[in-house]
Automatic annotation (TrEMBL):
Name of the protein in question: Latexin
Organism from which the protein derives: Crotalus adamanteus (Eastern diamondback rattlesnake)
Family: Belongs to the protease inhibitor I47 (latexin) family.
Keywords: Protease inhibitor, Repeat, Signal
Pfam families, alphabetized: LXN
Residue stretches making up the Cystatin LXN-type domain: 57-155, 176-275
Length: 275
């Protein structure tokens, strides 16, 4: 296991890059709670949630605590993969309401209300109402995510995306670089959209691989190489590092990412790498 102290991801880099929304808001709720029973979190019954009245078995949980924020983070990554771009990222604001429903024979469903903000241009914030269902069982299954936003985001720079797209398309040599950001958290302005695209694509990895015992966040591009294509898409081969906040493990991952400003991001291939 590669940990925070390992050479691949210095603790300084993690401190600099860890989003504020991923810091536990309640100091008495330890990380080990991710591996424990949800029963101590249960409070009074909740009947408010995504789209319809909740089951009477759904119980409120503290919105500031680890399980609620972890589940909301997976929803945020799902939203980012659907809506993000090199010049459009999102960050999670405060979780305002959370409840947990035990579905016998299936898994745990979290009902959430939290804030989502466009982060690059300090843009608009919207309230998000969401459900995420973690399936239990021996065969890994991606969580089911449903969400609704209370409005539309206003500050997406489509022009900046187009300028970036045209610049990469007309490079005389294919882009290839490494260590974005460096171990002190620094990156050039030119490399920020390359990193942002990896962050957006990482939303797919997080969504597909999350469980109730994980809390993933992409922290660094180790290597990236542009792949030449015969169509209008940009393609990048990324080697990235994920930080699992729950276990403190650093996980290398390969992503083959396609992007077009009119068609969005697609992860064509991905694989967890050996340490």
């Amino acid at each position: 296991m590669r940990t925070l102290r390992g050479p691949g991801a210095p603790a300084r880099l993690l401190q600099l890059l860890l989003p504020a929304s991923l810091v536990l808001a309640h100091p008495e709720w330890p990380l080990r709670a991710a591996n424990g029973s949800a029963q101590p979190l249960l409070g009074k019954p909740s009947r408010r949630g995504y789209g319809e009245q909740l089951s009477p078995s759904a119980m409120e949980i503290p919105p500031s605590h680890y399980p609620a924020n972890r589940a909301a983070s997976v929803v945020l990554h799902y939203i980012a993969y659907q809506r993000g771009s090199p010049y459009r990222l999102f960050e999670m604001g405060r979780v305002n309401q959370a409840s947990l429903e035990d579905i016998p024979g299936t898994g745990h469903k979290y009902h959430l209300k939290f804030e989502v903000k466009e982060s690059i241009q300090n843009g608009s914030s919207l309230n998000c109402t969401a459900e995420i269902l973690y399936h239990h069982g021996e065969t890994p299954v991606a969580p089911e995510v449903h969400y609704a936003l209370a409005g539309e985001f206003e500050t997406h720079s489509k022009e900046a995306d187009s300028i970036f797209y045209n610049r990469i398309q007309h490079l005389s040599e294919a882009l290839e670089t490494k260590n974005i950001p460096d171990n002190d958290g620094n990156m050039t302005e030119e490399m920020k959209p390359i990193f942002n695209l990896a962050k957006v694509a990482s939303g797919y990895i997080v969504w597909q691989n999350s469980t109730e015992n994980t809390w993933y966040n992409m922290i660094q591009i180790q290597n990236v190489k542009q792949m030449k294509r015969n169509d209008d898409y940009l393609e990048f081969s990324y080697e990235v590092l994920f930080h699992d906040i729950a276990s403190q493990e650093i996980i290398p991952w390969h992503m083959q990412v396609l992007w077009h400003p009119h068609h969005g991001v697609k992860v064509a291939e991905n694989s967890r790498q050996s340490k």
